[in-house]
Design goal:
With 77 residues, the protein is mostly helical. It contains 4 helices and no strands. The radius of gyration is 13 Å and the shape is globular.
Amino acid sequence: RRYESAWASFRGHSKVLSKGRYREAFKLPVTDYRGWARLIKKAGYATSSTYVQDLVWIIEEYNLDEVTRMGYLAQSI
């Protein structure tokens, strides 16, 4: 797909994941990136056998979990 902005792309991706076979991940806390990676892999999102490990490595290498926590905390205020 082609999107007009990064935000629109992120939103579109979220909509895909929130439906059908990926829905189970939304029962997890937003901060449980390891659980999310496992569930969406199990549901067929990725075919790579190292998808979970690769995604977790990227999240931890670039501290993306901190970005999620900051956004989550900001919404709570």
